[in-house]
Amino acid sequence: MPGVHGPRPGRSRDRRGRGARGVLSLPGPLSPAGVPIHRPRRDAFDDLVAAILSRLEPHFDREPDHVEVVIEEAPLLPEAWHEPVPRSIVTAVPGGFRLVLYRLPIIERAVSVEQVEDVVWTVLLTRLGEVWHHDPSDLDPR
What we know:
The chain is an alpha+beta fold. It has a domain at 41-139: 2-Layer Sandwich (Zincin-like). The protein is globular, with a radius of gyration of 22 Å. It has helices at residues 41-55, 57-62, 103-108, 113-132, 136-139; strands at residues 66-72, 88-93, 96-102. It has a three-stranded mixed sheet. It is built from five helices and three strands. 11% of the residues are buried.
């Protein structure tokens, strides 16, 4: 009985714009754990913040006030809130400060990926400048 054996010739289909599916993403001899096809935006934002914090590491080593940076999705606001949603807050905690970045308000105010990076830089430098009593431009390593 004649039939087609092996992969189909030509390009693989990408129906509905969801990216590659099937055999390409399954574990195989060259990728035993499989290939991650989809990466959540939350992970990409976390990696961006981690990269920026690694560039600011010398300041964290020099400054006496310990700052813990935390990422949350969005702030919990009362129903009567009429001001713009904050992108971050700084609170005093035992042993230092906690800087909370809100991912969704930051992403919503940006148009492109490059602008998200600029907004994260601005928010981090501004808040760290408040905590350490420095001008944000003095902290900026770019």
